[in-house]
Write a structure and sequence with these properties.
CATH architecture of the largest domain: Alpha-Beta Barrel
CATH topology of the largest domain: D-amino Acid Aminotransferase, Chain A, domain 2
CATH class of the largest domain: Alpha Beta
Distance between the termini: 24 Å
Number of domains: 2
Largest sheet: 9 strands, mixed
Helix content: 25-40%
Number of strands: 17
Shape: globular
């Protein structure tokens, strides 16, 4: 781990944490997690939408019937203290709850649940692609749905689906994948929600497309509507990806990343479009405390 990584686990702050290789959640993907960012701002280090992220973390645990032993306020205070102890001006925060038991077997009955939170240095998830845009491939793997696994929970095992799709895309020369839902509509990226622009309107898949209801997705919708842009949440056909004027991913890690090529076809003119650029700039202003309209989303250290 990085020397600057700060860790809290089961009530204690430390510099490292070890678990057995046979731990249930490592063997079976039975953990739940969350991703949160803290940013450097003129008023200090700010954690973006902390309350919403912790609420989703607790909901993920509830969906998977995990009793964490910590409530909303408890975990919010831990995150604030951890970021402060880390000394990092900006960082990525990873809460993770897992079955800390190394007995072989699928059953979780009676197994200890541990809660781990780390704060780590973290830059742009797609590197230079955050500015210039990335290429995507529509995956041959479909997105999981609620008849298979709960897509609204950030369960560790859910992301095996994402790993397969992302690895396939990269092997084909693209930088990321786009997954379709089981009913044939556009769903999302492996770890990102997707938006497209058509006729000046912003379109994004609805809940019915088996997507994670991203907090960054909600942020972009609210910023766009506040800026006078019409937003529609609806089913999106595959061919609309090929004919849209602009496209971008969004997520806590990805932030807002333009998509400039899909399945070897240019998106628009092959460069980030004006609405994408405007929303990216506004998003950056919001998370760094430079937009008074949305200051309530920031938790300062």
């Amino acid at each position: 781990m990085s020397q600057k990584t700060a860790i809290w686990m089961d009530g204690k702050f430390s510099e490292s944490a070890d678990v057995p290789v046979l731990t249930h959640s490592l063997q079976y993907g039975s953990g739940v997690f969350e991703g949160i960012r803290a940013y450097s701002s003129k008023d200090g280090v700010s954690i973006f939408r902390l309350s919403d992220h912790i609420k989703r973390f607790l909901n993920s645990a509830k969906i998977y019937s995990m009793e964490l032993g910590y409530g909303q306020k408890d975990l919010e205070e831990v995150v604030k203290s951890l970021v402060k102890r880390s000394g990092l001006a900006s960082c990525y925060i990873r809460p993770f709850a897992f079955y800390n038991d190394h007995n072989i077997g699928l059953s979780t009955e009676g197994k200890k649940v541990s809660v781990f939170i780390a704060a780590v240095p973290f830059g742009a998830y797609f590197g230079a692609g955050k500015e210039k845009g990335i290429s995507c491939k529509i995956s041959s793997w479909h997105r999981i749905n609620s008849m298979i696994l709960p897509p609204e929970a950030k369960g560790s095992g859910n992301y095996a689906n994402s790993v397969l799709a992302s690895s396939e895309a990269k092997a084909s020369g693209a930088e990321e994948a786009i997954l379709m839902s089981g009913n044939g509509y556009v769903a999302e990226g492996p770890g990102e929600n997707i938006f497209i622009v058509k006729d000046g309107k912003l379109l994004t898949p609805s809940k019915d497309a088996d997507i994670l209801l991203g907090i960054t997705r909600d942020t972009i919708i609210k910023i766009a509507e506040n800026s006078g842009i019409v937003v529609h949440e609806r089913n999106i056909h595959r061919e609309e990806l090929y004919t849209c004027e602009e496209a971008f991913f969004c997520g806590t890690a990805a932030e807002l990343t333009p998509i400039v090529r899909i399945d070897s076809r240019k998106v628009g003119n092959g460069r980030p479009g004006p609405i994408t650029k405007m929303l990216s700039e506004k998003y950056s202003a919001v998370v760094t405390g430079n937009d008074a309209e949305f200051k309530g989303w920031l938790y300062y250290i």
